[in-house]
């Protein structure tokens, strides 16, 4: 299944997962509107990086609430908003682990590694993963907390990612 502008259904992966599988197609009214929206959202998250996350604030369990993925031109190429792809991340001390699966229960990917927050950016270093292409990768995302939500944005493997994670009580 092709999603957006030639991105095939599959796993794109980054922090906290991940750019995840089964991206749902999103029809946009114009490429310019998508580019503007992406730039605006990224600027908002990056502008708040000075007051952003600390590793202590990120401790605990998180579930992916939504995600948007953009190509190098700024065009929206996928999103997760309907609960068809699920992901859970646990951060404990300087370690993290996550798993991603489909709503019907099919496993997609899992990984673990070390995390830290550097100058307002969440940095994840993968040291073990179910997908060999993830091993040894480092992902860096602007990080912001709003209420019980963790917002992050950054580039991963040629895709710009904007994810919203919800704290699990």
Describe this protein with a few key phrases:
169 residues; mainly beta; Lipocalin; two-stranded antiparallel ribbon
In short:
By secondary structure, the protein is mainly β. It is 12% helix and 49% strand. It has one domain: Lipocalin (Beta Barrel).
Task: Give an overview of the whole structure.
The protein has 169 residues and is mainly β. It has one domain: Beta Barrel (Lipocalin), CATH 2.40.128.280. It contains two helices and eleven strands, in the order ββααβββββββββ. The protein has helices at residues 31-47, 55-58; strands spanning 2-3, 7-8, 60-70, 76-80, 85-92, 95-102, 107-118, 121-129, 138-146, 149-156, 159-167. An eight-stranded antiparallel beta barrel has the order 3-5-6-7-8-9-10-11. Strands 1-2 form a two-stranded antiparallel sheet.
Strand content: over 45%
**Number of helical segments with 4 or more residues:** 2
Report the radius of gyration as a whole number of Å.
Answer: 15 Å
Topology-level CATH name: Lipocalin
For the biggest β-sheet, the strand order reads: 3-5-6-7-8-9-10-11
Q: What's the end-to-end separation, in Å?
A: 35 Å
Largest sheet: 8 strands, antiparallel, barrel
Give a count of the beta strands, DSSP E runs of length 2 or more.
11
- The pLDDT mean sits at 77
**N to C succession of SSEs:** EEHHEEEEEEEEE
Uncertain spans: 1-50
Helix content: 10-25%
CATH class: Mainly Beta
- Overall domain count: 1
Structural class: mainly beta
**Gross CATH architecture:** Beta Barrel
The rough form would be described as globular
